[in-house]
Amino acid sequence: MGLEEKLPAGFMLTTVELAAGWVRKASMWPATFGLACCAIEMMAVGTPDYDIARFGMEKFSATPRQADLMIVAGRVSQKMAPVLRQVYDQMSNPKWVIAMGVCASSGGMFNNYAIVQGVDHIVPVDIYLPGCPPRPQMLLNSIIELHKQIQSSHLGVQREAAARAAEEAALRATPTHEMKGLLA
What we know:
The chain is of the alpha/beta class. 39% of the residues lie in helices and 10% in strands. The protein has a four-stranded parallel sheet. Helix 2 runs antiparallel to helix 6. The model has no long low-confidence stretch (mean pLDDT 78).
C-alpha cells in the first residue's frame, strides 16, 4: 500500500497504527456477493431505515477492484466457487470477508455435493454472521465488530503474515467432495 508496508515490524508508532486503522474502518467499500435470500437482507441495510452510510459504506462497489470488503450473502454452489475466488483475488489489499447467513458460513440445510459447506473453504473469512436469513441489524452489528478488528490490526510485516496464515488455513481446509459421513 505505501511506506508502512516496507517498514519492519515494531517500527511504526502506535498512534500511526491507530490512525491508519481508523481511516481503513471509516472508508470501507463493500463488494456485494448476494447469492440467495440473505442478499435481500443485505440490500435492506442500504435503505434509510438502517442507513449503512453512517459507517462510510454508502457505495456498494460493482467492481472488485474498488472494494475492500466482500459480503458473501447466501449459499455458494460448487460452480460459483471459482467466481467467488476470482472476485476475492481482484479486490484491493487489505481486504476482509463477512460470511452472511448460515448457508455461507456452513452450507446450512443444503448438506449435499452441489453446495460448498462454508465459504471459508474458498476465501479466508473474518466475520461469521449466523441466521437464516440474518436481520439487517445483525449485519450492522457484524460490520461494527469488523471495524473493531480493523481498528486494532497491525501494519506492515505483521499484517502480511496474518493475512498469509489465514489464506493458508483456508487452502488447507478439507474440500467438500472429500468429506465423508456428514449425513446422519
